[in-house]
Amino acid sequence: MVIHKHDILTLIQTRLRTDLSILEQAVALARDTATHGDCLGSSKYETMALEASYLAQGQGTRLLEVVRALEYFKRLKPTANTNIGLSSLVLLADEEAKQQLLWLSPEAGGLKVPYHGLEVTVITPRSPLGQALLNHSAGDEIHITIAGKLRSYEIVEIY
């Protein structure tokens, strides 16, 4: 299979723009709910406005994370890498030869986009797998314990 890193970058940016739009609506709704007159309690036991303000704060924090991730991916210029580092796209194979595509990024960890029958997962170097992959090359094997189980992966290719 031919993998075009630029196409995957475009898919990631599109997904982040969609997430951003949804989050902007969620933040507005949570903020409006928190400040709506009907939500203000008449006693200390009526906490709907307080709960809505916590939700608005959490949604706002998530919104900032998505904005930061989108800005990172918009500035990114796809380049080929020989060793795995930030912005590397890595094709891994596990012990059963099941392949997965991973994009190493400082932002948007956990984001997934479909690409030609595979799912591209964005991981950060803060994750155990991200840490294990750093500075390795195609053909290397890595071993990592995930959920108490030792797993082995072969780095098939780096884009």
UniProtKB/TrEMBL annotation:
Record-level Gene Ontology MF annotations: DNA binding; translation elongation factor activity
Transmembrane segments: none
Pfam annotation, one family: GreA_GreB
InterPro entries the UniProt entry points to: GreA/GreB_C_sf (IPR036953), Tscrpt_elong_fac_GreA/B_C (IPR001437)
Signal peptide segment: none
Keywords on record: Elongation factor, Protein biosynthesis
GO biological process: regulation of DNA-templated transcription elongation
Domain Transcription elongation factor GreA/GreB C-terminal residues, every copy: 122-158
Source organism, top-level taxon: Bacteria
Protein name per UniProt: GreA/GreB family elongation factor
Organism, as annotated: Mariprofundus erugo
